[in-house]
Specification:
- It is a single chain.
- The longest helix has 19 residues.
- A hairpin with an 8-residue loop joins β14 and β15.
- The protein is α/β, with parallel strands linked by helices.
- The strands form two sheets. Strands 1, 11, 12, 13, 14, 15, 16 and 17 form an eight-stranded mixed β-sheet that branches. Strands 2-3-4-5-6-8-9-10 form an eight-stranded parallel β-barrel.
């Protein structure tokens, strides 16, 4: 991601900023598209991961659909050229305003998360003289083996409809003439690296789709969500996910009828490795027990480590560890930001070459849930975006 020319360019720029390697983004999208096409799978990009305008423009050029979780995301997807017939709208708390706007834009499908939501969408569609296509998001009670803050498929989570509610769903669909039932939808969590989890999901989906068939509700679309994880520890060695192995699991274990479509909603796996947060060392504080690198970026620019205890590889671009000479000093630092919060720490005990004021620091794998979660806390200036040339 970084070469001598890139680092030299960074020296002239005001920090902090997000740096996007657009070539890597395109290579990742191509790899995903090729792997999905082998099985005629459909991929929607989960926009919540990153809605940087340039990133969206590139993604839609690869023909992906858009998975949206707000009315604003639906609007942005269509404005950036995503085909409205490939836009899906999920989310546990859609407002009437958002539903009405999505109906007006004639999107492909609403992923519905409660019986009450079915009734609301039906009533709003009826008032407009429209029919809304819906998929039922089911909570399959499958453990994603990921951080408890980002698991979504267990009965203890707020997302989806529990299996014991399915009779009420079937009854509601029968009473909602302005709804068109398309299929079933699942999303069990994020940053999943154990592919056996997806095998377990397939087994559960096979059981559940049979339930719908038995109750006179034929399924056209099987939407398996996303959640495929990336390698935060080795961003250069594993810069592109193994999409071929991911999709093969579903081809091997999912029972798909000839007239059915299989859809996915990938976000992190498509964009995470393509960006890094670039910051400068403001101050170095050396103590008896702790050394601190105080950066000009903080939790306002990248909150994942504070919110999820997430790991990010951290590099000193001026003094990379890979080029350490035998006489260079190597130290351990707590890499922290300038925000007036004790939690404003990117990582503790990071081994780096001895670092100095003005050194450029890269926090890697920041293309997903980085820029989109930037805040104005402490009245901080908004972080900028820089792109590969």
């Amino acid at each position: 991601m970084f070469n001598t020319n890139t680092i030299s360019r960074f020296q002239q720029l005001e920090t902090p900023f997000y740096y996007y390697d657009l070539n890597l983004l395109k290579q990742t999208l191509q790899a995903c598209s090729d792997a999905a096409a082998a099985y005629n799978f459909h991929v929607h990009y989960a926009m919540k991961a990153n809605f940087n305008p340039k990133v969206l423009d590139i993604i839609q050029c690869f023909g992906l659909g858009a998975d949206c979780v707000s009315g604003g995301e639906v609007k942005a997807a269509i404005e950036h050229g995503f085909d409205k017939s490939k836009v899906v709208f999920a989310g546990v708390g859609k407002s009437d305003k958002e539903i009405n706007e999505a109906l007006d834009r004639e999107i492909f499908c609403f992923n519905v998360e409660s019986v009450q939501e079915l009734q609301i969408i039906n009533d709003l569609a009826k008032a407009k003289g429209k029919t809304a296509a819906v998929a039922i998001r089911i909570n399959p009670n499958v453990d994603a083996h990921t951080h408890h803050f980002i698991t979504t498929g267990l009965e203890e989570n707020k997302f989806g409809i529990n299996t014991w509610e399915l009779p009420a769903v079937a009854e509601a669909l029968g009473k909602c003439p302005n709804l068109q039932f398309l299929g079933i939808h699942f999303h069990i969590g994020s940053q999943i690296t154990d592919l056996s989890v997806y095998k377990n999901l397939c087994i559960r989906v096979n059981e559940l789709q049979q339930w719908f068939e038995d109750h006179g509700l034929p399924i056209k679309v099987l939407n398996l969500g996303g959640g495929l994880g990336v390698d935060y520890y080795n961003p250069d060695e594993n810069s592109i996910c193994d999409f071929a192995s991911y999709f093969k699991v579903f081809n091997d274990f999912l029972n798909v009828k000839p007239d059915q479509e299989v859809h996915f909603e990938l976000g992190r796996a498509l964009v995470a490795q393509s960006a890094a947060l670039i910051s400068r060392v403001l101050y170095v504080k050396n103590g008896l027990k702790k050394n601190f690198l105080i950066l000009d970026a903080g939790m306002t620019e990248l909150i994942r480590p504070m919110l999820y205890q997430a790991y990010h590889t951290i590099e000193n671009l001026n003094r990379p560890n890979s080029q350490l000479a035998s006489d260079n000093v190597q130290l351990h630092y707590d890499v922290v930001g300038p925000i007036c919060e004790s939690t404003d720490c990117f990582r503790k005990d990071v081994e780096l070459s001895e670092s100095f004021r003005g050194d450029l620091i890269a926090i890697r794998t920041a293309g997903a849930y980085g820029e989109v979660m930037v805040s104005g806390y402490n009245l901080r200036d908004k972080v900028q975006s820089v792109y590969s040339e």
